[in-house]
Amino acid sequence: MSLRIVVCVKYVPDATGDRHFAEDLTVDRDDVDGLLSELDEYAVEQALQIAEERQRAGDDAEITVLTVGPEDAKDALRKALSMGADKAVHVEDEDLHGTDALGTSLVLARAIEKTGYDLVVCGMASTDGTMGVLAAMLAERLGVPQVSLLSEVSVEDGTVTGRRDGDTATEQLQARLPAVVSVTDQSGEARYPSFKGIMAAKKKPVASWDLSDLDIEAEDVGLEGAWTAVEGATERPARTAGTIVKDEGEGGKQLAAFLAERKFI
Amino acid sequence: MAEVLVFVDHVDGAVRKPTLELLTLARRIGEPVAVSLGSGAENTAPALAEHGAVRVLTAEAPEFADYLVVPKVDAVQAAFEAVSPSAVLFPSSAEGKEIAARLAVRIGSGIITDAVDLEAGEEGPVATQSVFAAAFTTRSRVSRGTPVITVKPNSAAVEAAPAAGAVEALEVSFSEKATGTKVVARTPRESTGRPDLTEAAIVVSGGRGVGGAENFPVVEALADSLGAAVGASRAAVDAGWYPHTNQVGQTGKTVSPQLYIAAGISGAIQHRAGMQTSKTIVAVNKDAEAPIFDLVDYGVVGDLFEVVPQLTEEVKTRKG
């Protein structure tokens, strides 16, 4: 039986660009280029490796890549398709503008259920909000095991196993499918799309769903429905220029004097 | 005064510092009630009482260690229902954030993660966050449900404030899903004897300029002279020179120490995201054009293999 893998990805403003807020205190997406969140590339990569392993064993797997976001978010889906995912689902609805983490997890969970799944793969966090809560929320909403923050992951005989490197210990985890996993940036470098992959991606199906397709009311998502409210955002004042010296043999001692003056020594 | 639930992060009864900071912040918005789970939970009570916990709810069961996250969610939910708090606070550890996330879904509440400050507001607690690689500071609140907030380490100075700290057993019945993810093995991290990276008052980090794993002792020696934690940039970690658990940056740990010393680190945006809120920033780098110098309070343009050992010697001399 085919293993159905859903990878959740996010289209985010480029972290090397000048990110800022729009007037309604949502992330301004107009002035900064967007891209597939780097940390989600690891999720796509692990999904591909799990599918390839399965195909080598003479079995089958299908990868659906899923995102919630504006029109441009299709770029993130195209990237994942060109890496090798089979098909994509784009949830787009103007009422989604300003949706927070709890609302996003609701939309994703409904879309995952509609798609059908055995395994959901997420990145460890988005590179914009960096909350790192989505995999846990999805597991809670879907009522399936959470196997999160893995640096190694494998699937065999309906069981997912993985390695989690925590602050105080390294753990080996195990759960039955269906399950939600998230992978870290230590799980393995993501592949670059080949020319063939890029050409093939253009022909892969991308389904577009809106809130009505997922039976979600507009008031439960978006800025109005958000469970959190941003009251203000201020740009961090530029640091006042520090002292910079060129080492001419006494650089270490000069630095020590500075640290002593600031009472660190 | 309203009670505020505080999740306790501890290792076999030894309370980790971010939890004590959390109690300090919790007192600004109510009376802290601590929830302490797992092996050694009762032993956390004296430290929690000393820092303002009016009550300490404890539960011990093998499920907390044998299965991932969900047993603790069940327990915190039981505490939530027993206490009816005005807010629930967690340390921003990986586990803390995951428990908070699932609790928020269960109780239908908004969640704010990685707060760096917390104060009482007219419509509930207001959390300060540092976003977009610390380029912006936002102030947010939970607008639906009971606020669930996770707080980063080093967000408040620990203050003693003795309170009753009455220990009460928490009744927990585990949900069917509690045993979904089994922890089949656990290997405790070997102690380096250095402070924990996210909690340390001083962090010394090495980057690409260190040039190899065999040179990291230069960075470690400086750290040890200052009683500091050791960090590494992503470039150094990806090259295999230092463990990922020490990575500072967007995909590693974010640190906010009193003093951050960057040795041989150019200061890519991803690294800056992890250390930009440090109070005092110092850098040593050969390249005068390195972006890290835009952030520093004091920078030395020079060879780190000359400057850092000299600094280490000078620190030792001055400390006697």
Automatic annotation (TrEMBL), chain B:
Signal peptide residues on this chain, from the entry's feature table: none
Keywords: Electron transport, FAD, Flavoprotein, Transport
Domain Electron transfer flavoprotein alpha/beta-subunit N-terminal: 4-187
Domain of life: Bacteria
InterPro entries: DHS-like_NAD/FAD-binding_dom (IPR029035), ETF_a/b_N (IPR014730), ETF_a/FixB (IPR001308), ETF_alpha_N (IPR033947), ETF_asu_C (IPR014731), ETF_asu_C_CS (IPR018206), Rossmann-like_a/b/a_fold (IPR014729)
CDD domains, alphabetized: ETF_alpha
The protein's required cofactors: FAD
Role of this protein: The electron transfer flavoprotein serves as a specific electron acceptor for other dehydrogenases. It transfers the electrons to the main respiratory chain via ETF-ubiquinone oxidoreductase (ETF dehydrogenase).
Assembly and binders: Heterodimer of an alpha and a beta subunit.
Family under the similarity heading: Belongs to the ETF alpha-subunit/FixB family.
The protein's name in its UniProt record: Electron transfer flavoprotein subunit alpha/FixB family protein
Source organism of the structure: Streptomyces rhizosphaericus
